[in-house]
Amino acid sequence: QLVESGGALVQPGGSLRLSCAGSGFAFNHYPMSWIRQSPGKGFEWLSAINGDGGVTYYADSVKGRFTISRDNAKNTLNLQMNSLKPEDTAVYYCASGSTRFGQWGQGTQVTVS
């Protein structure tokens, strides 16, 4: 199970930190990703991190503004989002995997306005 938290309403230029708590599986064995769905649009993969947290990947749309991290001791995945823009408004999901996704969380709403 994956449960996201941290979504909120934030002003443009602001920052937000999302978290995703994993349970019921060997969290540290899996790469993890953040994915979002904007209103009226499809899913957009944002970032991935490997199992030990040593390797990260970012979509061009968030590179330099978002930082993915994980704490395997706490089975937690994080996404630090800075310099937020109105176009970052979306439901944000964490998912297991980096190119093919197994488990998904329920999503957390981020609104930049």
Compact overview of the structure:
It contains no helices and ten strands.
3D structure, described in words:
The structure is a single chain. The strands form two sheets. This protein has a six-stranded mixed beta sheet, with no helix packed on it. A four-stranded antiparallel beta sheet has the order 1-3-8-7, with no helix packed on it. It is globular. It has strands at residues 2-5, 9-10, 16-22, 32-37, 43-49, 56-58, 66-71, 76-81, 90-96, 108-112. The chain is an all-beta fold. The model has no long low-confidence stretch (mean pLDDT 96). β5 and β6 (56-58) form a beta hairpin.
**What's the end-to-end separation, in Å?**
31 Å
Hey, roughly how much beta strand do the residues contain? Answer: over 45%
Widest sheet: strand ordering: 2-10-9-4-5-6
The shape is globular
What proportion of the residues is helical, as a percent range? under 10%
Q: Total number of helical segments?
A: 0
Name the assembly state. single chain
Order of helices and strands: EEEEEEEEEE
Number of strands: 10
Q: Helix/strand-derived class?
A: mainly beta
Segments where pLDDT lies below 50 for 5+ residues? none
Q: Largest beta sheet, briefly? A: 6 strands, mixed
Average of the residue pLDDT scores: 96
Q: Over all CA atoms, what is the radius of gyration?
A: 13 Å
Summary keywords:
113 residues; mainly beta; 6-stranded mixed beta sheet
List the helices and strands and how they pair.
Blueprint: E1 2-5, E2 9-10, E3 16-22, E4 32-37, E5 43-49, E6 56-58, E7 66-71, E8 76-81, E9 90-96, E10 108-112
Parallel strand pairs: 2-10
Antiparallel strand pairs: 1-3, 3-8, 4-5, 4-9, 5-6, 7-8, 9-10
